[in-house]
Write a structure and sequence with these properties.
With about 750 residues, the chain is α/β, with parallel strands linked by helices. The chain contains 30 helices and 21 strands. Helix 6 crosses helix 11, helix 14 crosses helix 24 and helix 25 crosses helix 26. The longest helix is centred in the N-terminal third of the chain and has 24 residues. The protein is elongated and about 120 Å long.
Length: about 750
């Protein structure tokens, strides 16, 4: 039997405001109805009986809702609808809450301040629910809200407040009945207890001063508080806002204003503009030799070493400062350093900043910007490629300094070759360029198999080994060079022809065509005044592409990268949050922010592994130069940190293998660099004499492999003889593997038509 339209169930009665007492008193005994084929039984009452009962004074006295059906029923029977007590609308309910809230003895505690915000948020949203809730929903919501007085978790507060605002209609109809009258009476204390509980939970991790500052903010986000709670207001709204405010007070909007001592000086810049091999750096070094004090800044340790040696040969007392090596000489007058190591507090008579086009580099460009804006020297020489001229002038002009531009032209013409060069027809004085370490080693071994001894240059080669290879070439022990694009910066060798064996390179993200500036940088190494009065540029393939790159105009650099200073440590918030907000701050033209992804990755990993470091220690650790993508170096880095935190001695790492391979020696050299950098970063004592001897020994072993045992360190494909990748474990190359797989796969039969 189904429910009749002329009957009403108990749940329907409850929605209309009936209570159990009213049902038992005013209605006849119910009729029991089976629902479908189930055993469930419902109690029902005739609708006419319900309508009549709702017109009685007993029902009216205990119910304030005007039931439209009851009024219609009375009119139908010729009776006048009884005068019922009017239910409160939203404004009336709001007035009840405001009256109750105003009677409470509030103070200026954090809990009272938060309770006021809760109250304001509730008043704004009362009655905003579009749908009429069921009696069961209202009962549950009101129960959850009143339970806050017993000290529920902070996460229960937002849903409980939301439920209260949705119950506005019911509260308006039953405002002087239980539980509504009790709810209104206890309303302010419920808010106070809930606020106090939330404050206690948040206060455990945040300072009281910051909490009060947040709660007293005139534009406190009530919507976010109501929806997500106070912890979200703290992390999403207050912390970023407070960090930005602190950073704006600590750091100047324009990077030039972060160096007041330099702004107080009258500096003059000499811009040495020219391509590769035009004598730009030499002109700066000559002036450096003549000055009483000076500093040389470059991108590579090798360049800093060359500058130091040049100055020492000229009887100028010069120290060395790089991330991986230092040679501090007491009483020095000059310093040769990598750009990041500039001492902004030391004054010099002359400064030379080399390879200034690096100012656009996303990771390291900030060091050149910092040096140009902040170096304390009245005379500054900037050596740069032509595309950097405009941006350098903009920076100098913004500082109010003067400048002179000196254009440097090649003394030896650079001539593109007419035809491609066969690898079998290379000549003494040629430099063969390929863009992978495997390519360099395999080409070098191929030359050696034909009786041609090459010098080998690639990025992962230790500086000491690289210098040995260069010295061998300069002595004439080697008549050829095989190199990656590492030859393009800092290697002044007498090369007659640059021969590109590839026109693509992997840049760490993707394999792409060479850029015009990359082609020019490398090609510029061809020719040597007084030895090769013409430099030639050729290729073993795709020669038109190389020619086009030489002729193409390189677009000018438009942005200078800026970094953050140690002032971020003075902001009283989490370092990762500070760095994130710093990265969001606007910059003035022509600056762009440093890529902080490396900092975020390293600091996040430190915390993930449980390292309890201060903000200063985290920043020091993230500033240590090492390849964080290398698992062995990462493990060594974390081991050093664990020993440092435990107060144990940091020892120089050893080499496990008695007969190490080329890869093992290169990795070990990087571990030695990491050991030195870590000790310097955390002010630990390193045995620098032992370290120097170990480095020299490793460099010599690597050099010996390159000279005599290279073939033993290269694996070749068992099928085609092509060199295998140094990290490839299989015996065949990828091309041969694909051919074998395709050959072994059964051919699909064509479907007959």
């Amino acid at each position: 039997m189904s429910k009749s339209k002329n009957s009403m169930t108990k749940s329907a009665l409850l929605k209309r405001g009936w209570t159990n007492e009213l049902i038992e008193t005013l209605l006849p005994k119910p009729t029991y109805v089976h629902v479908g084929d189930s055993r469930k039984v419902l109690r029902t009452w005739r609708k006419s009986a319900v309508m009549e009962a709702e017109m009685t004074p007993e029902f009216i006295d205990k119910h304030r809702v005007i039931v439209p059906e009851a009024a219609a029923f009375a009119e139908k029977n010729g009776e006048s609808a009884p005068k019922m007590k009017k239910a409160l609308d939203t404004a009336g309910v709001r007035a009840l809450f405001e009256e109750s809230f105003a009677k409470y003895p509030w103070d200026e505690s954090a809990a009272s301040l938060l309770a006021r915000h809760y109250h304001r948020a509730i008043l704004v949203r009362l009655g905003s629910n579009g749908q009429e809730p069921s009696y069961g929903q209202v009962s549950s919501w009101l129960g959850e809200f009143m339970a806050l007085e017993k000290g529920r978790p902070a996460t229960c507060v937002p849903p409980a407040m939301s439920g209260l605002t949705k119950s506005c209609g019911y509260i308006g109809a039953h405002w002087d009945e239980r539980p509504c009258d009790r709810l209104i009476e206890h309303y302010p204390n419920i808010l106070k207890v809930a606020a106090g509980n939330v404050i206690d939970q948040l206060h455990g991790v945040q300072s009281e001063e910051s909490l009060f500052d947040m709660l007293r903010s005139p534009d406190f986000p009530l919507g976010l508080l109501f929806r997500d709670g106070l912890s979200k207001v703290w992390s999403v709204w207050y912390v970023p806002r407070a960090i930005r405010s602190s950073l704006s007070l600590l750091m100047a909007l324009n990077p030039r204003d972060e160096y007041p001592e330099a702004r107080a000086m009258r500096r003059h810049f000499i811009l040495h503009i020219g391509g590769t091999n035009t004598g730009k750096t030499y002109a700066g070094l000559v002036r450096l030799m003549e000055s009483p004090t000076g500093v040389y800044l470059g991108p590579l340790r090798l360049l800093a070493l060359e500058a130091q040696e040049t100055l020492l040969d000229a009887r100028v007392d010069c120290s060395l400062a790089t991330g991986e090596e230092e040679d501090s000489r007491p009483g020095d007058t000059h310093v040769a350093a990598t750009a990041e190591k500039l001492d902004l507090k030391r004054r010099f008579d002359v400064a030379v900043i080399d390879e200034c086009q690096m100012i656009r580099d996303p990771q390291r460009g900030y060091a050149w910007t910092r040096a140009i804006l902040g170096v304390l020297a009245p005379e500054v020489h900037l050596c740069a490629a032509p595309e950097a001229e405009d941006i350098l002038i903009r920076l100098i002009a913004s500082c109010g300094d003067t400048y002179t531009v000196v254009k440097h032209e090649r003394r030896v013409p650079l001539i593109p070759m007419r035809t491609t060069v066969s690898p079998e027809r290379i000549q003494p004085g040629d430099a063969l360029i390929t863009f992978s370490k495997v390519g360099v080693l395999s080409v070098a071994e191929e030359l050696r198999s034909h009786g041609k001894e090459p010098a080998i240059i690639y990025g992962a080669l230790p500086y000491a080994t690289r210098r040995r290879q260069m010295e061998g070439f300069l002595r004439g022990d080697m008549q050829y060079v095989v190199s990656t694009d590492a030859i393009g910066m800092g290697l002044n060798l007498p090369i007659r022809r640059i021969i590109f064996m590839e026109t693509e390179k992997f840049d760490g993200v993707e394999r792409r065509d060479l850029l015009p500036e990359e082609i020019k940088q490398i090609a510029g190494r061809a020719g040597r005044f007084g030895m090769y009065n013409r430099g030639y540029v050729g290729a073993t393939q795709n020669l038109p592409f190389i020619k086009a790159g030489l002729e193409a105009a390189v677009p000018p650099i438009e942005k200078a990268v800026v970094g953050f200073s140690d002032l971020v440590l003075q902001v009283d918030f989490d370092l990762l949050e500070v760095l994130t907000e710093w990265n969001k701050l606007p910059t003035v033209e022509p600056y762009v922010k440093l890529d902080i992804s490396r900092y975020i990755t390293i600091i996040s990993k430190l915390r993930e592994l449980g390292f309890d470091l201060t903000k200063e220690q985290e920043l020091r650790a993230a500033n240590i130069p090492f390849d964080e993508t290398s698992e062995p170096l990462r493990e060594l880095f974390f081991m050093f940190l664990r020993r440092y935190r435990m107060g144990e001695e940091i020892e120089q790492p050893g080499l496990a293998s008695e007969d190490p391979t080329l890869l093992e020696l290169e990795l070990y050299y990087k571990k030695l660099d990491l050991y030195f950098s870590f000790c310097k970063a955390f002010d630990l004592q390193a045995d620098e004499d032992k370290l120097f001897e170990t480095r020299e020994d490793v460099a010599e072993q690597i050099n010996d492999i390159l000279l005599t045992r290279l073939k033993n360190n290269i694996r070749f494909c068992a099928i085609c003889g092509k060199p295998l990748g140094l990290y490839q474990k299989s015996r065949i190359c990828d091309d041969c593997f694909r051919k074998m797989r395709n050959r072994n796969q059964p051919r699909r039969r064509r479907k007959s038509k």
